[in-house]
Amino acid sequence: MNLNELNDLLQKVRVLETAVEEVKSRIINHRSDYDSNENATRYGLIDPILDALDWDVRDVGMVRTEYRMTSGPVDYALFDGTAPLAVVEAKRLSRTLDASVSVQLLSYAIDVESIQYVVATNGDTWQMRARGQRDTVFDVKLSSGNSVVSALELIRMWRGVLVGDQAISPIGALKDQQTPTQDEYSGAIQTDEPPLSTPRVSRGWIRLDEARYNARDPRPTRIRLPDQSEIRITSWKNVWISIAEWMVEREPQMTACSFGNTKPTVIKTTDEGFWGRGGYQLSNGLWIEPGVTGNTLLRTARSFLQHFNVEPSSVLIRFD
């Protein structure tokens, strides 16, 4: 692995670290909601981690939910495009994970030769086992651990690793060293070619179709919508909200929106259940799905515009 590849891997760990911190905050602030609701746990705690690992839960080429196998359905099957590489069983936050959950998954996976790993999680604890092995590859509890160390454990689920595009040899070396602090970890490895990230390409206006999320980069400060109106923003989530609100004004009769993803909608008609917690209510009463972060947020915003025949390139984002 060369320095550029190592730098890419470290950037991925940083993105994952940010997702871990977000999940920890949600567990602290809304534990009772997640304790009693498996769907809330999946949307609010599990999906953000999978997204940070490049498993887009809205892309059936990557992730299929409620995937049926011979022995029964699993909550998530992680695909390389043609065959499942791993399966994930989700439980509500209050559910204690014991070996029986993973053993059940291992029995499911035995019928599918391509499945090499099984994962059990309640959104806080994540356990991964290799095919035919009862011992864990990792067993990590996000709420009580160091976020960097948790990210270094979870990176074994990174899509690039499971598909086989990337090696993970640096991870063991990093973990064997002294546990890094936030400040120590924040420095990037310097190479002749800096890693691609939106503000490094330009600190001026960036087209939405060219924008890429990077946890280390500054947050966007303004958005210019297709009608040339500009709005000051303070976060990536504001990009998605601003676009959705603009579309509400353009399409006042807009109803719930589906983009052909594994989940039925990204804009919901009611705040029933967990939709009212962590989501955002638009001016026409519809609700934006909670838990959309990072590059998934950008992909969702682009798909949303295309759904209404608006070119994503007509939206500009500025970094000052």
Task: Provide an overview of this structure.
By secondary structure, the chain is α+β, with helices and mostly antiparallel strands. The protein is 37% helix and 18% strand. The protein has ten helices and 13 strands. It has helices at 3-35, 38-52, 99-109, 147-154, 159-163, 169-176, 182-185, 198-201, 236-250, 294-307, and strands at residues 63-69, 72-79, 84-90, 117-121, 125-130, 136-141, 205-207, 222-224, 230-232, 267-268, 280-281, 287-288, 316-318. The strands form three sheets. Strands 1-2-3-4-5-6 form a six-stranded mixed sheet, with helices on both faces. Strands 7-13-8-9 form a four-stranded antiparallel sheet, with no helix packed on it. A hairpin with a 2-residue loop joins strand 1 (63-69) and strand 2 (72-79). Helix 1 runs antiparallel to helix 2 (38-52) and helix 9 packs parallel to helix 10. The protein is globular, with a radius of gyration of 20 Å. Mean pLDDT is 77; it is low at 167-202, 260-265 and 272-277.
In short:
Helices cover 37% and strands 18% of the residues. It has 320 residues and is of the alpha+beta class. The two termini are 34 Å apart.
